[in-house]
């Protein structure tokens, strides 16, 4: 069955504590090529079929349920 | 600065409790178009520059640090 991938990231202007912790650990490990890490969520939504209506439904779900619009942004909703 | 996106998902053969919980909630909300939801992680890694060596380094980090290879798979490592 077809899958729609929804990607959600913390808003860029907000502090990402998880990301900061990983970034600090990587710097302590000497990974100097890496300047920052931000961590978000990835949803694989298996649907019956991909139609414009289903895509719109998943987009609405991404904004209402899969993300907290106060602190997160829906980066993409893509049928794969 | 350039960004490399790392996507990590739970192994398909394993139970994804978070995903199951969200799937159940969506079905109770009457979202019958959606048969399953699986939830993983998305990392945005900001690097100094994207070279084959840096990509290989992030690939290794994805497998060693960003994911638990026992229960998760690295789905993709992509420079964006």
From TrEMBL, chains A, B:
Keywords: ATP-binding, Cytoplasm, Ligase, Nucleotide-binding, Purine biosynthesis. InterPro entries: PurS (IPR003850), PurS-like_sf (IPR036604). GO terms for biological process: purine ribonucleotide biosynthetic process. Gene3D superfamilies: Phosphoribosylformylglycinamidine synthase subunit PurS. NCBIfam families: phosphoribosylformylglycinamidine synthase subunit PurS. The keyword Transport does not apply. Pfam families: PurS. The keyword Lyase does not apply. GO terms for molecular function: ATP binding; phosphoribosylformylglycinamidine synthase activity. This is Phosphoribosylformylglycinamidine synthase subunit PurS. It comes from the Bacteria.
């Amino acid at each position: 069955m077809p899958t729609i991938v929804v990607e959600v990231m913390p808003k860029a202007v907000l502090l990402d504590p998880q990301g900061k912790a990983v970034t600090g650990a990587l710097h302590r490990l000497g990974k100097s090529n890496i300047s920052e890490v931000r961590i978000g969520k990835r949803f694989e939504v298996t649907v019956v079929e991909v139609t414009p209506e289903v895509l719109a439904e998943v987009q609405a779900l991404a904004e209402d349920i899969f993300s907290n619009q106060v602190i997160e942004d829906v980066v993409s909703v893509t049928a794969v």
